[in-house]
């Protein structure tokens, strides 16, 4: 009788090790290695006949691409985040904190797909038939018609899927599913890897778009082995406060589209309702006449939106001043502080500086540099910026403002959000002179002077 070799996997990065170590040699996390059987040995014993000659190579030139094969979900905001819809044979991982609305989003999604004539299979391993039926009752008649399977065995899922032959398969959640090939409990590293691999093999062979719901740890990371994120094609994060009605859907990985797209929803008693005007969500509670607040118009994928940047400077109580950011890269803040001191004569070197992007947004667009500079200058001088003004421009190390893309779309978005003036780099003046409500500056020094003007 052949014994199964025991190996260890890191919960954080998925690294395999032949012996237990206190510290993962790859990611450096302590006490992250957990024991699991060698899945390779299990697969070799349970899958005979997969030897030489089982796979046949072919030229890529003989494979016809299918650009129009995406499945439209009829949920416009979700389609945009996905890059145009679901790709057959793809695996998607949806993560979020408990109670945020992941199951509601998926049930609405598959209900719309089934209404459009697509065959779907919704699998729940965490909720009973009655619980899912209650949610479907709240979401409407379309949700009650969804084909549903309550089980936690991956073998049952594959057996039913081969009979139903769905175009879209949803598994809620991957941590609740287990395989009888392994003796470990559901949710463990080995079980998650094994079940995800089996479902991946089925989805790729059958051309099925498969959704996995994933748990999130206290640190906000997707639970389970890091290899799960490498295995799937798309990783989506569903975020928001459970006590609030707004939710955000964003991607951190997408092999078929951009990861910069953002969708906003409002949770109601009839399910999630998409918000067309995302900017209003982030500006609804903005105070007036407060220093350190500036408005940026960054691009999130193909859509510009108006975001509020808040800055605060306070006397440093320690020899090393603090630099704390939320939604902005700390290194970018350090560069902009240096430019502000060297090129505009405004020094914040002896003060603690705090910068936050309201609403949980992350600013990666260089065009938001000017808004951050304006917020820092306003906080340093303790003077509010002019009301109804938005700032767009990339800041160079010389203090000069550089041109940005999609200036017309940004200007229209700012105007719809109620902005009367949008500040743009002077190098773009010749091409945008005809746009109403635009003003132009060429150097960060002019922004500081704007605060001191009567």
Main β-sheet, spatial strand arrangement: 6-5-7-8-4-9-10-11-12
Q: Given the structure, what is the number of helices?
A: 14
Distance between the termini: 88 Å
Helix fraction, binned, reads 25-40%
What is the mean predicted local confidence, pLDDT?
A: 86
CA-atom Rg in angstroms? 26 Å
Tally of strands: 23
The largest sheet is:
9 strands, mixed
Give the percentage of residues in beta strands.
15-25%
Overall geometry comes to globular
Structural class determined from secondary elements: alpha/beta
Unreliable spans are 42-52
Describe this protein's structure.
The chain is an alpha/beta fold. It contains 14 helices and 23 strands. The strands form five sheets. A nine-stranded mixed beta sheet has the order 6-5-7-8-4-9-10-11-12, sandwiched between helices. A seven-stranded mixed beta sheet has the order 17-18-16-13-19-22-23, sandwiched between helices. Strands 2-1-3 form a three-stranded antiparallel beta sheet. A hairpin with a 6-residue loop joins strand 9 (234-239) and strand 10.
What is the secondary structure topology, with strand pairs?
Blueprint: E1 6-10, E2 16-17, E3 33-37, H1 39-46, H2 76-82, E4 91-95, H3 102-115, E5 120-124, H4 129-139, H5 141-144, E6 148-150, H6 154-164, E7 168-172, H7 189-206, E8 209-214, H8 227-231, E9 234-239, E10 246-254, E11 262-268, E12 271-274, H9 278-283, E13 293-296, E14 299-300, E15 303-304, E16 307-315, E17 323-326, H10 330-344, E18 351-357, H11 369-381, E19 389-391, E20 394-395, E21 401-402, H12 407-416, E22 421-425, H13 429-432, E23 438-441, H14 444-452
Parallel strand pairs: 4-8, 4-9, 5-6, 5-7, 7-8, 13-19, 17-18, 19-22, 22-23
Antiparallel strand pairs: 1-2, 1-3, 9-10, 10-11, 11-12, 13-16, 14-15, 16-18, 20-21
Helix pairs in contact: 10-11, 10-14, 11-14
């Amino acid at each position: 009788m052949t014994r199964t070799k025991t190996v260890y996997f890191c919960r954080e990065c998925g690294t395999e090790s032949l012996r237990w170590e206190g510290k993962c040699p790859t990611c450096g996390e302590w006490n992250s290695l957990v024991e699991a059987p060698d899945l390779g040995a299990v697969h070799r014993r349970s899958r005979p006949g997969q030897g030489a000659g089982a796979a046949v190579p072919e030229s890529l030139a003989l494979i016809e691409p299918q650009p129009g094969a995406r499945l439209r979900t009829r949920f416009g905001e979700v389609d945009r985040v996905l890059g145009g819809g679901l790709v057959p044979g793809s695996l998607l991982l949806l993560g979020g904190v408990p109670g945020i609305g992941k199951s509601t989003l998926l049930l609405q999604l598959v209900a719309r797909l089934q209404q459009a004539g697509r065959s779907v299979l919704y699998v729940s391993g965490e909720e009973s038939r009655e619980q899912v039926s209650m949610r479907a009752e709240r979401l409407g008649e379309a949700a009650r018609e969804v084909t549903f399977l309550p089980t936690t065995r991956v073998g049952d899922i594959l057996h039913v899927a081969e009979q139903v032959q769905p175009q879209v398969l949803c598994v809620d959640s991957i941590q609740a599913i287990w395989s009888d090939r392994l003796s470990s409990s559901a949710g463990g590293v080995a079980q998650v890897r094994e079940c995800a691999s089996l479902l991946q093999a089925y989805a790729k062979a059958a051309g099925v778009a498969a959704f996995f719901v994933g748990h999130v740890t206290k640190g906000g990371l997707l639970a389970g082995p890091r290899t799960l994120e490498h295995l799937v094609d798309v990783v989506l994060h569903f975020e928001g406060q459970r006590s609030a009605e707004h939710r955000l859907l964003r991607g951190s990985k997408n092999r078929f589209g951009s990861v910069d797209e953002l969708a906003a929803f409002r949770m109601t008693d009839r399910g999630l309702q998409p918000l067309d005007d995302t900017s209003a969500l982030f500006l609804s509670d903005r105070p007036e006449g407060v220093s350190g607040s500036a408005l940026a118009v960054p691009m999130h994928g193909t859509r510009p939106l108006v975001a509020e940047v808040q800055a605060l400077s306070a006397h440093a109580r320690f020899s090393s001043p603090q630099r704390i950011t939320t939604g902005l890269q700390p290194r970018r803040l350090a560069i902009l502080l240096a430019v502000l001191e060297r090129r505009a004569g405004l020094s914040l070197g002896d003060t603690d500086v705090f910068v936050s992007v309201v609403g949980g947004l992350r600013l990666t667009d260089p065009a938001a540099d000017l808004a951050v500079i304006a917020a820092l200058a306003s906080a340093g001088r303790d003077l509010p910026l002019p009301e109804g003004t938005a700032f767009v421009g990339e800041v160079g190390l010389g203090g000069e403002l550089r041109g940005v893309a999609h200036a017309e779309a940004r200007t229209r978005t700012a105007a719809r959000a109620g902005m009367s003036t949008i500040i743009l780099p002077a190098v773009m003046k010749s091409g945008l002179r005809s746009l109403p409500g635009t003003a132009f500056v060429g150097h960060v020094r002019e922004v500081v002077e704007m605060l001191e003007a009567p």
